[in-house]
Amino acid sequence: MIKRLLPHLCFIISLMMLTFYVVDIFNPGMDFLGNDIFKILLLIYGVATAVLSSIMIVRQRKS
Question: In terms of residue numbers, what domain contains 7?
Fold first, then answer.
């Protein structure tokens, strides 16, 4: 279950982060990059990407 969820989670959060970045460039008053929600999403994205990378490394070594 988690192996199927992680790629989707990484993809969705990465799109959200890219959107926040672009909106923050055009409208600095929104301050997305200094927001606590952005920091939480960044943490979740980092952990999910690390776990997904570990799973992919293990799969490649097995085959």
Answer: 2-62
